[in-house]
Amino acid sequence: MTAFRPCIDLHQGQVKQIIGGSLNDSGAETNFVSSHNAAYYANLYRQLGLTGGHVIALGPNNQQQVLEALTAYPKGMQFGGGVNLDNAAGYLEAGASEIIVTSYLFENGDFSWSRLEKIKAEVGADKLVLDLSCRKTQDGWMIATDRWQTITNMQINQHTIAELESHCVEFLIHAADVEGLQAGIDSELVSLLGNCCTIPTTYAGGARSLADLELVQSLSNGKVDLTIGSALDIFGGSGVTLEECVHWNQQP
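^ thats the sequence. predicted structure below, dont judge the formating
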């Protein structure tokens, strides 16, 4: 069954909800800036028994917030954002349940199997989440790196998914084009993931109400989980409450 997965997105040292497609080196269009720190949300998720969520650092100046969140909910949340061979083990030691990797796995737009093997050897496939966040082009959904600014030449399709599944424990996929817009999920992408993925997979981007959990469950046959950000009441949204999402997860 499709589950709600919680998130903490950090940008410039603050918990924010941004419009993903606007993110660049100078900033981002922002939907919400929280008065609470990352540890507050991590504690909240821990108290509610929410699992499988992620902390994402979007760019620099987030390290202190990341470490405080991982300390607040040890082994309760995944971490992604600038993870590489040198720091991956450190984030696990700091309390991350798994580490999420994207940009490190690409060199000049090309996927690096040698880098994947190195980081897998360092932390183990069972602690490795591959972030296949993407943007839609005329050639299909292409993986995007460097805060979704760089579109690589690797397409999300059945072949790619099948090749990567044995190297990780889970996939995380942000649909960067609809991230933060609260204009609905990318239904075609969710359907594709439901058809292709045989390991746990979380989709993020565009969710605006509880009905989107029902839609993702229907489109993916319950194989894809959903992260809801900007529409959530704890992030200033009015589309759905965290209480409703917790109740959804508690359904038999």
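Residues 4-249 form a domain with the TIM Barrel fold (CATH 3.20.20.70).
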